[in-house]
């Protein structure tokens, strides 16, 4: 309904609260405007936030006419280029010039295909002189070394610079683009045409080859190595093959997780080689070269193999022979040498930048660049700057960034499925033979190749080569290789297997639970690391944000069913991260069919195409993606940050918005009934808001508003220009309207004074209220109307059962049933009002966060729906009172501080994708599932966790890796549309033993807890409890009957599952699921809500608290955090047997800390830490540790502070004396002990054992 | 009289068939993400009661007109409809709840159910048609 314009609604009266003083009633009423109607119309449609299905703007920056180069020779002079490049480096970029140059070149090179065609000419240039060659190698070595530092694996790849160089020289050939350049510039155009044509066809096949021919090409590099110290034209032919090898390498690396073993072992030797080569080469090469090299190094780390196809190679060889003349270049040796590095670079990374520089430096030769090029360069430069700046925002230092990325291209992995089959076929003659020897598992021809090269290189004898590219040399190379790094490589190649075999024993070691007395480890339990090769491990998503219950995914649903373990994911997608690469680019590269974001686990088939790791579709690499903003190099798609980090954030373009990004809008809906005033939360809230008003996340558009309600609804007009806030009262709660829709949500900065006035006045405005009713429903409807034009966050503070208007609730709790062991009713909502409203809110991008501060039953089960489905969060402060319950008050204060200042994302959607064959069927958390894999999150906060259950729909036999990707699209508080992408990669296994070996017991427990909550709401609590027990019984009996062949009388579990029964018992004794112990319904429901929406780390503490003994803290094993020494006492099992009267213990329950003081606790401790002379004088209620200047106090406090800092919500500290009544609170967390209503741990084990034997 | 009963049943059955088809189409729309869960469920929930009434009516009619076989055939389906309606938890928005339809394979089971009903109604349709013709001839 609408209020009559210009006059207050009949029901609305302006009341001037005493404090607010004299704003005229008329003034208040005057603005009364149109009813809510228009707002709703304005509201975005529900679908709004869906990610647009199409992306793909053409990469604008890099579109360059392909014909470019051909023009080159005639037009251009190198000089201008030089000068430009000089400017680049010196002025704009701190980065070496070569890098700088890259963008330019990149743009120039845009047309890949053409580049290929040109390739053949390149050999000329390369082939020319040994000297040049050396130079090249040196550069390569440089690169290698630099690259190698971060990752050992990386080093392996590149082991010997020499090979590299050789290959690089070759590469020039292989790499059409560079080659083309070269040919044009340096040598003979005449040669070019003939050669080039053959090469072109090669280019096409090449893609395929790349893919298939891994083995053969790989070998070649080796051969190259062997042969050619100094490669003359003759040697060149051999070099040609190498490019394929490189490709091969890449592919392997991609494909290879099976293969990946290349890791550390080879390193030392290779490094040495590298260094040696490097130095020698460097000396040989011109100073210019060295400079260039050094410059290039940073850029070059990841080299993509040139794509010459075998066909090409043959052709090239011919060409090369013809090219022999290029030696003519030599006269210009210095130049040539210079150029070569560039070639190398190009080969590696296709770095055009260097190339350009080289050209520039080698002034004499006619270069292809033209004036056009220059212009383009400038443009590119800008682009480069942009990108660099953005990346820098993510991580200030490019170097550090690299460190972050760490893995160089070896990392780029593809699912093995794509790569595994070696195919000899595509390769011309030479290839096939080598192919056979290398099983797909033997990963890296890559790594091999290089080491072998070195020796060859050093010898500088070409004998092997003489044969040319033929296969025989390949063999030799291969063998050499085998001998050489031999053992290391073998072991590394078997790495995957080894890892498994080594890890299996531990995680599969049978444990007799009934005999193992101390099952709980002394240190915190860490997430198991998926059994992947090293490179993948490094790249994989942090377990803090993304965990799977089974780190080895079973191949089939049948296998999963046999294992009787839950399969699912636990997500913490919006976690506060200290380091997060932020990427800005015009095109966000995604799979065309499944829309997966490009990630470290895709495979690059060649430089122009990548294969999606979720749906296996082959996609094109957009031009823009060829340029790497971090290194400012071109042609290294595998080195882009997207492909180097499994957690990245994109700045999304307008394609990802259906409306302009919304501002941050905060609305506070406050209960001001008598009950609320009595509890006194308003003071704390207003105080906290006043303190944090400037820290609210947002930009200049941030808006804020307040609504209070008792039996009527009060709005506050805070329009700028008013002298005081005006209160507008709407008493027509059956048909709520907004009295002045425009001035209720006001700009935070424009109206800051008014807001502060209001916040100062609010706590005292209602002190004398007699109103006991609460019209929550209508207030929420009003809030919805207020928020629907923009969306945002509604913070609702409620202190009692809503008793008026829509959504009123009845008390459903029967106090006598609190400790019933039979039926616990009313776990579900009583009405669908809140759910409907939540869905409306969700549709308008509004989330409702509920703060329930009540001393009596408030039907949280119904109220929570409001937050559950609008993606809000829920806080519950039972028996809150600001004076009677100071610990709760303090907790509220601290929680509010975090709540108000933490990051927030608006109008978010989250999509979870997984490899074809897997499907998600149930989601847990606070959100609305809008379609099968799309979660609609009106708000996202860093403390929200999610869980997803998975099933295996199709057999995964044809793949060895599965990936999961979550993409969270949200609007940041600054009005930026961003996408945060996490990708997790896990191996697939076919044996039950492997499945058990990979169980992540904590994740499994958390997922089970989520499932149990669902079960207890939809069915009954006892069903849920039975299901939990059955989960243990089933999985252990399945293990016992299938995997373990040890015949014991005891209860056998694999080591990976040894904590499973303990955790399940803990769950059964958790507030949410316990029976027999008196539990208030709201407490229980709140515990369930927390299980649903807490991230794993926090949930685990809720389920299984940590117990430490703190009266004897020592610095042994202490860690240093921010200059503080934090002692790390061992974990104690949760049993009274561990409590001694002489000790003091700290229990960390997530949201509560208990310090239990034994009766005969050492007086020194009591005095030093608690500040009281003896046990008797410790007060009953103590919630703080005094800051005493003693060592033990310092230790205790730093330990507690450290624990506190690890979680978003500040826990309350209770000091519990041994004899105080509060000790029951403490003792009920000792879950290994027996209580009246529940098993002890040992009894539980016996019970499980009995069930198994049945 | 007999003919009238079957004519009515036939019409009712036609309506139920259309309804089943509508359910299937809407659910598959949801499956393909053409509509969102909210609108899908509100569309479908509207028709749950008409379907229930329509089917119960035929069932009762068959009981009254003493067609035991057809009555017994219809009984389980009618009972299921009623059971399903009654068992909706108080917090849900109807038989189809947008917040749960994507969970635990509910969408699939709804789809399956609609399919089965479609088959059942088709069967009934021909039975009614046959009985109607028979009745008309007998008249």
Automatic annotation (TrEMBL), chain A:
Key words of the record: Cytoplasmic vesicle, Protein transport, Transport
Location(s) in or outside the cell: Cytoplasm, Cytosol; Cytoplasmic vesicle, COPII-coated vesicle membrane; Endoplasmic reticulum membrane
Compositional bias (Polar residues): 102-112, 225-234, 455-464
Compositionally biased residues, Acidic residues: 371-384
Domain (Sec23/Sec24 trunk) ranges: 661-900
Biased segments, Low complexity type: 1-46, 303-321, 360-370
Domain Sec23/Sec24 beta-sandwich as annotated: residue spans: 905-989
Biased composition (Pro residues): 421-442
Domain Gelsolin-like intervals: 1127-1200
Domain Sec23/Sec24 helical: 1000-1100
Residue span, Zinc finger Sec23/Sec24-type domain: 588-624
Membrane topology, as annotated: Peripheral membrane protein
Signal peptide: none
Disordered as annotated region, ranges: 1-83, 102-141, 220-254, 302-339, 358-473
Family: Belongs to the SEC23/SEC24 family. SEC24 subfamily.
Protein name in the entry: Protein transport protein Sec24B isoform X1
Taxonomic lineage: Eukaryota, Metazoa, Chordata, Craniata, Vertebrata
